[in-house]
Backbone:
């Protein structure tokens, strides 16, 4: 039982490049989330998906898009990466009730030069 | 608006002392309050949570208290140990009740 799996673990991009971060969970959870974590800023919600087929903006959605491909997978796309998007990105999922405890992946460390 | 304030941002204690971290939230309808521990370079992990129908919950050396009138909740760690050193985050629901908003974190250092 892997829980929440994120790929890649590390990535370096140049400004203007595009990239998709992948996330998959094997706990049959309805809800999935993308957060970014910056020093001194805590975890900020980018986008979330309360159920398969739905997505909603969080606190900091600008510059990102998401796709809830199926119940297991929730991807985050940067269409034109900017240095301000350098961060650690965490995917999370939660169970049948939206606000059940969230299980996090190991994170993706993304640097944009 | 949606806001979760967490204090203090850093906390240093001696081994065996107690540590208290406090969070305030803005939405009076909020009903679920988890706490996460994040060790350096690792993922956040849930350590305890409380729902609004109870005022206190304990799990061994950790406890969470909730004051709905004042809209704040606190994490209490007793008999701290060096392995308690980590960043602790509180969280509360957004206004729609569909996602969690996190505080900015408290870095706890326990020295032996």
Residues:
């Amino acid at each position: 039982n892997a829980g929440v799996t994120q790929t890649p673990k590390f990535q370096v991009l140049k400004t203007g490049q595009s990239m998709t971060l992948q996330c998959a969970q094997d706990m049959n959870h309805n809800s999935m989330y993308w957060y970014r974590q910056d020093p001194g800023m805590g975890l900020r919600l980018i986008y979330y998906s309360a159920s398969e087929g739905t997505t909603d903006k969080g606190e900091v959605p600008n510059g990102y898009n998401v796709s809830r491909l199926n119940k297991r997978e929730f991807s985050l796309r940067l269409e034109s990466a900017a240095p301000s998007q350098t961060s650690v990105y965490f995917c999370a999922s939660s169970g049948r009730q939206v606000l059940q405890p969230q299980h996090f992946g190991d994170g993706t460390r993304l640097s944009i030069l | 608006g949606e806001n979760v304030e967490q204090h203090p941002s850093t906390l240093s204690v001696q081994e065996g002392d107690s540590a208290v971290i406090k969070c305030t939230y803005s939405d009076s309808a909020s009903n679920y309050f988890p706490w996460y521990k994040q060790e350096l370079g690792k993922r956040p992990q849930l350590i305890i949570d409380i729902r609004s129908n109870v005022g206190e919950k304990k799990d061994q050396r950790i406890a969470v208290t909730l004051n709905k009138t004042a809209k704040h909740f606190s994490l209490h760690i007793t008999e701290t140990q060096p392995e308690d050193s980590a960043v602790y985050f509180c969280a509360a629901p957004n206004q729609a009740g569909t996602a969690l908003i996190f505080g900015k974190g408290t870095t706890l250092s326990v020295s032996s």
